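Reopening this one. Same input as before:
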Amino acid sequence: MRMRIRSFSYPGVIVVFVACGVAAPLRAQTDIEHTPNELLFAPAIDFSRQVIPQPAGPLPTPRHTGIKAMLKGLVIDLKYLPSRENLFWAGVGGGLALAVHPLDDDVNRKLVGNSTAENIFKAGEVLGELGTLLGSATAVYAVGRLKDQPKVSHVGMDLIQSLAIAEGLTQTLKYATRRERPDLSGRNSFPSGHASETFAFATALERHLGWRYAGPAYAFSSYVAISRLPANRHWLSDAVFGAAVGIIAGRTVTSHEAHPFPVVVTSVPGGAAVSYVHRTE
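Same output, byte for byte:
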């Protein structure tokens, strides 16, 4: 048996959507017990300050995946919404949004009216609509139910629940903050619903399918989030925090469905570090 222990760190804010989208899908294949001697690879890190336990491997398929089970699961999701992990992601999203807030006006001036940017990101408006995402999730769920494939219907069920949680959080924050949109069309700019819902969709997919398949989903989510800027519908900070809201929604739905494995997010001089233990046979 071989055991590999990995660690990395990043100083401050480097790339906004990489931080929101790529930091989320850290995974391991199996659980493992570890002793203090195995953690000597990073003596400067205080492992007592664990923030994020994450599930390992594919999520277990529930016994029931019907409509009743989905509604019951949504109620359970609300129970797990207040958590230390979600507080962490809210802090990350809030910190990144505050960091890019001074750039909102400059980014808006450079992208709005830029025909190249508008043409490249034009499709994001339709692709990131709640109706488009919910229709896709419902189709996955329906296929699983009609073909009696519980694993497939479980994916669809979690996608639907993640979108519901993301939409609820987004609308609550929009009502509470009342931020004016850059095009002055209304006071419901913060956070971006397109960003939150596509990142919720991608996060739920990642929990079920792993990084190989979720990578394109996170790239798609980032595309949709950025598309709201040249469309003059959102500020950069709206999209950044919307991504964090989506990650919170997707992880809330899936985190309580699996057993945790040792993943540690800690503060280190000049930034933060994420460390995990990966065991191979």
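So the earlier flakiness isn't reproducible anymore. For the record, Residues 59-263 form one domain.
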